[in-house]
Design goal:
Blueprint lengths: L17 E5 L2 E5 L9 H6 L6 H17 L4 H13 L10 E3 L2 E6 L8 E6 L11 E5 H5 L6 E7 L5 E7 L6 E7 L5 E15 L5 E7 L5 E8 L8 E5 L6 E6 L5 E7 L4 E7 L8 E2 L9 E6 L2 E6 L8 E6 L9 E4 L5 E8 L3 E8 L2 E8 L5 E4 L7 E6 L7 E7 L6 E6 L5 E6 L11 E9 L5 E9 L10 E5 L16 H4 L4 E5 L9 H5 L7 H16 L8 E6 L1 H12 L6 E5 L5 H5 L7 H8 L6 H10 L12 E7 L8 H13 L6 E6 L10 H18 L4
Parallel strand pairs: 32-33, 32-34, 34-35, 35-36, 36-37
Antiparallel strand pairs: 1-2, 3-4, 4-5, 5-6, 7-8, 8-9, 9-10, 10-11, 11-12, 12-13, 14-15, 15-16, 16-17, 18-19, 19-20, 20-21, 22-23, 23-24, 24-25, 26-27, 27-28, 28-29, 30-31, 31-33
Helix pairs in contact: 3-13, 7-8
């Protein structure tokens, strides 16, 4: 029986059939008209959106608001709870770099961070000596959307490079700030990826420009005080299937140009001793060869999967000759131990790895070769390695948390192995870890794979199948969902929910093979794993199928669309945030920002009939059928360049046309934001409160 009562008539999207034929196979799309012909220009100026499309999206928002009207008070309560767990005037522990230490802080009621610095050994809490370099709240004034890309100071500490996006389209504008006066210079760089890399003397920087299809296609060199039109083109990537970024080394000796897709890497280096030189190729791209680099004085350390090292190994090569033929192994490949990233300092090599599903930090003394690991004893936890801003140091920084333990920040002396706690996340409204239980269980998939599932619930939650459950999943790009502390989900857990994360294939939770077994032709494993997790939780009485609300976003939204088609009867409700559900049409449209770079993840249906059929077999939009679907909430962003607004809009229209159930299909489009939703920290909490209110309503727990 539906918990949604007295709903108005839902919007009915007109059908305007368009037929597309590929590989001799014809498909008709009734809702292709929702894709605005001028989408590239609309991302920069949302006011030019086709009026018919705008009217439809606004009608959907009106219907959604009517369906959720009785949750207004609940949303306010949830928001207040979540806000109460945030220390509003929080400040980071500044990172030492030269004569200063740099950090961020918030003010009570502030949505955006403020960047500051203090003298190197000063106390960051001393507001009298804290120099505010950039006030995010001030820069955001008068803007319906505003997102900072950070502030990067030059090596001489005189200038800062900062960026912002004020439309949600992820076209960032860069500006240069005089850090002494706090004033911006005349330099304004448009249509960038959001960051850059300073030259050592702070007189110029390198940045990436996005083309009209939102792809990072060119690296430019900008000299302070000159117009953008005069910037020198350093490198142009002609293959639209590759991402590109630019960065600098800790020693300021090199500018890195990192070119990659989801399975292939290529680096080009520019020595800062000659900024006019052509970038030097390290190892030419070979499909399937991945590598990344960090400088270690007279050598580069190279993390790579070369020569069958599926879980990666670390090599070194001379700085003067880093070509692949000169790579020498220093950390061997250990099957089942996945090396995630690496950092090098004057006396130590450091890397973050995952072994037996849990992360650990390993430190090697570069002089003796002696290694030791930093690990923890909890059943499931999360580690973050932030390293250091200086090369000549023995101290690095890392963070630790678990589902029950608030985040802790440590400085770690790699020489003495002393661990110093710098900060523990404060929960102003209070948090007693003893009230909660965190578990790591394993759900058997149909093919025998064991799918890890992380659980959080209150000790007094009955485990007899009656508890509602929010089951979260992602499963793509090798991204691992950490078992870290999440204050927001406590609003569900404290209401008797079991909060669960299914670590499905497509992530790297159990090593690189776990990722490969959930991509391309094996994508179906991701969906089956999630359903297996729901089955296991129901079977073991943590919850029941009648009480499970599934949630996922972006590629996790594709997961939501797939399980809605495959097993709608096993879920009470589904929350799909910015869901990548029109997979086949998107992968057939090579003008879209992410399509060519995404082919190594999903397959290329333009060139391959095999992958056309594989994607068509699971693409959520293409597999909607006339059958009962659970209550579904889809969320989109008008200027989202990653999952375009028309994907959830088309999906909802088709679902509503086909479903035979009485539960509503809702669409909420943020008309002022893109992929990440609202940008302010409290605005984001309002969105989470809305999603949780939907889950609580669907679960019948209002």
């Amino acid at each position: 029986m539906s918990v949604f009562k007295n709903l108005p008539i839902a919007p009915v999207a007109p059908k305007k059939p368009i037929t597309d034929t590929r590989h001799g196979i014809s498909r008709t799309d009734n809702y292709a008209w929702m894709r605005a012909d001028n989408w590239q220009a609309m991302f920069k100026d949302p006011s030019i959106l086709d009026p018919e499309i705008r009217r439809h999206l606004e009608a959907e928002n009106d219907y959604m608001n009517a369906a959720m009207a009785d949750t207004k008070d609940l949303q306010k309560t949830l928001f207040a709870e979540m806000r109460g767990r945030i220390k509003e005037d929080d400040s980071s522990v500044p990172m030492k770099d030269g004569a200063f230490a740099y950090g961020t802080f918030y003010v009570t009621g502030g949505e955006h961070p403020r960047y500051f610095r203090v003298p190197r050994e000063a106390a960051a809490s001393d507001e009298a000596i804290r120099q505010v370099l950039l006030d995010g709240d001030k820069e955001a004034e008068g803007k319906s959307y505003f997102r900072l890309a950070g502030l990067d100071h030059s090596s001489d500490h005189s200038r800062g490079l900062w960026g912002y996006d004020d439309k949600g389209s992820e076209y960032f504008t860069l500006k240069v700030r005089d850090l002494a006066s706090g004033e911006d210079l005349t330099d304004v760089i448009e249509n960038t990826g959001g960051g850059g890399a300073w030259d050592p003397d702070g007189k110029s920087f390198f940045y990436t420009v996005l083309d009209e299809n939102h792809r990072p296609s060119k690296i430019f060199h900008h000299v302070i005080g000159t117009p953008q039109a005069d910037d020198r083109l350093v490198y142009e990537e002609e293959d639209p299937g590759f991402f590109m970024s630019v960065g600098g080394s800790l020693l300021d000796d090199f500018i890195y140009i990192d070119i990659h897709d989801h399975e292939t890497s290529e680096y080009r280096l520019l020595s800062t001793k000659d900024l006019t030189a052509e970038p030097r190729l390290v190892a030419r791209r070979v499909t399937g060869l991945e590598y990344s680099m960090t400088e270690g004085g007279d050598v580069f350390y190279i993390l790579t999967n070369a020569d069958g090292a599926k879980d990666f190994k670390i090599m070194e090569a001379p700085v003067e000759a880093p070509r692949k033929e000169n790579w020498r192994e220093v950390v061997p490949h250990r099957p089942g131990t996945l090396i995630l990233n690496h950092m090098a300092y004057a006396r130590h090599l450091v890397w973050l790895q995952r072994r037996e599903g849990l992360p650990e930090i390993v430190v090697r003394d570069r002089r003796t070769g002696e290694e030791h690991a930093i690990a923890f004893a909890e059943e499931a936890y999360s580690l973050g390695l932030s390293g250091a801003a200086e090369y000549d140091t023995d101290v690095i920084r890392f963070s630790y948390s678990s589902m029950t333990t608030p985040s802790q920040l440590f400085d770690y002396n790699m020489q003495t192995r002393e661990r110093r706690l710098l900060k523990t996340q404060e929960v102003p409204s209070g948090h007693n870890a003893a009230d909660y239980v965190a578990r790591r269980v394993f759900a058997p998939a149909p093919d025998g794979a064991e799918v890890p599932v992380t659980l959080l619930y209150r000790k007094d939650t009955p485990l007899d199948g009656s508890a509602p459950c929010l089951l979260y999943g992602y499963g793509a790009y090798g991204i691992t969902i950490p078992a870290g502390f999440n204050t927001n989900c406590l609003s569900l857990v404290d209401r008797g929910f079991v909060y669960a994360v299914a670590h499905v294939r497509g992530g790297k939770d159990k090593g690189f093979q776990w990722y490969e077994d959930g991509k391309m032709a094996k994508k179906i494993n991701t969906f089956k794993d999630f359903i297996a997790a729901a089955d296991y939780l129901s079977q073991e009485k943590f919850t029941s199928h009648a009480n499970i609300i599934a949630e996922g976003g972006s590629a996790g939204g594709m997961l939501m669309g797939a399980i809605a088609n495959m097993a709608p009867e096993k879920f009470k409700g589904i929350i799909a945030a910015v869901p990548f559900v029109d997979v086949l049409n998107t992968m057939l449209d090579d003008t879209l920002p992410l399509t060519p770079p995404e082919w190594p993840e999903w397959g290329n249906p333009i060139e391959s009939m095999e992958f056309y059929n594989i994607i068509a077999s699971y693409s959520p939009y293409d597999n909607v059928e006339a059958k009962p679907y659970p209550a579904i909430l889809a969320l989109g962003g008008l200027t989202d360049p990653r999952v375009t607004y028309w994907e959830p809009a088309k999906w909802v229209a088709k679902l509503r046309d086909r479903t035979t159930a009485g539960d509503p299909i809702l669409l909420k489009t943020n008309m002022d934001a893109g992929h990440g939703g609202a940008s302010g920290r409290f605005q984001r909490l309002e969105e989470i409160a809305f999603e949780y209110a939907f889950a609580i309503k669907v679960a019948g727990k209002m």
